[in-house]
Design a protein that fits this description.
The protein has about 300 residues and is of the alpha/beta class. The protein is built from twelve helices and ten strands. Coenzyme A binds next to strand 1 and helix 1. Magnesium ion (MG) binds next to loops.
């Protein structure tokens, strides 16, 4: 798991072409927002959307939210200008669409270096093509090289469905193996991993179930398309009161003098090891970050 405990439970796409949605953003309780210049913006609107992104992000208070800009592919006619415009807006990260290979990340990284972008400006990569799935390990490995800026993998499930021809069922049975590979690769590279979007934003029950599955699969959070999805995602990806109590009990047990120097102990009839103590520490760090954010 990544060492940072930056919360990315709810990560909302906001089309840069949608003035109303952009205006709503400051009032929404998502952990992060992706201002989108890519798929949610039609070609005729690309230039205007970029200008709107500039206007919205320049000098604005981020309200504690992480801000990411999704640019068009660097190989497209808009990508280069998007990247420079995004860099000037000082987002936390730039999200690269349709990354196929490590080169896709490295080219963007080189372009940022040439634009004197600070090291704090990170890259996120959409995993949404068959080629990306086949190159997943090599792409994620870039997470081990801090100079490559890569911080997070984002599942692009709609594109994966389109590109592969799998059937998009409600239970996502045919996509799940790929999602699990993404989480695995992200962990190998020390990256965060975000689940893809649920298109059906009116079905709250199905959405909460999908969030529960995403958390069980190991994702750090879910990408969202609609404000109604923020509350359920925050709730599902937050440690519960019972989980926090259990983690605290485990920490206390290992802190007892009689357990110092012991690798494994019994707690309520279960064997717990120091690796569980590490897990508990991470959960408590997330809980603390949540508390901090709620203040
Ligand atoms: N971010 C911020 N605000 C949003 C929003 C979003 N992604 N989606 C909807 N809203 C706002 C609407 O502007 C509306 O605001 P209002 O109360 O001031 O009128 C309110 O939330 C309710 O929206 P609603 O009427 O239910 O939906 P809609 O028909 O306006 O929009 C979508 C539906 C799907 C078109 C819209 O949610 C959307 O564009 N989502 C993002 C799509 C995207 O980015 N796709 C690419 C990544 S997969
Ligand atoms: Mg896509």
């Amino acid at each position: 798991m990544p060492s940072s405990c930056r919360l990315r439970r709810s990560v909302l796409y906001v089309p840069a072409s949608n003035e109303k949605a952009l205006a709503k953003l400051p009032h929404l309780d998502c952990d992060a927002a992706i201002i989108d210049l890519e798929d949610s913006v039609v070609p005729e609107e690309k230039d205007r959307a970029r200008e709107r992104m500039r206007a919205v992000l320049s000098g604005r208070d981020r309200e504690g939210k992480e801000i990411i800009v999704r640019i068009n592919a660097l190989s497209s006619e808009w990508g280069g200008e998007d990247l420079l415009a995004a860099r000037a807006c000082r987002p936390d990260a730039i999200l690269l669409p349709k990354v196929d290979t490590p080169r896709g990340v490295l080219d963007a990284n080189d372009a940022l270096d040439q634009a004197d972008a600070p090291a704090s400006l990170k890259l996120w990569a959409m995993i949404e093509t068959p080629k990306a799935m086949l190159n997943l390990g090599a792409i994620a490995e870039l997470g081990r090289d801090p100079s490559a800026r890569l911080e997070c993998l984002v599942a692009g499930t709609n594109d994966l469905v389109k590109e592969t021809g799998v059937l998009a069922t409600a239970d996502r049975r045919y996509i799940m193996p790929w999602l699990m590979q993404m989480v695995l690769a992200a962990r190998a590279g020390g990256l965060d991993a975000l689940d893809g979007v649920s298109n059906d934003f009116r079905d709250e029950e199905a959405f909460a179930r999908e969030c529960g599955e995403a958390r069980a699969m190991g994702f750090d959070g879910k990408t969202l398309i609609h404000p109604a999805q923020i509350g359920p995602a925050n709730a599902v990806f937050s440690p519960s009161g019972a989980e926090i109590a259990e983690a605290e009990a485990l920490r206390e047990a290992f802190a007892r003098p009689e357990n110092s120097g012991r690798g494994a102990i019994a707690l309520n009839g279960r064997m717990v090891e120091r690796l569980h103590l590490e897990q508990a520490g991470r959960l408590l760090a997330r809980a603390a970050a949540m508390k901090e954010r709620d203040r």
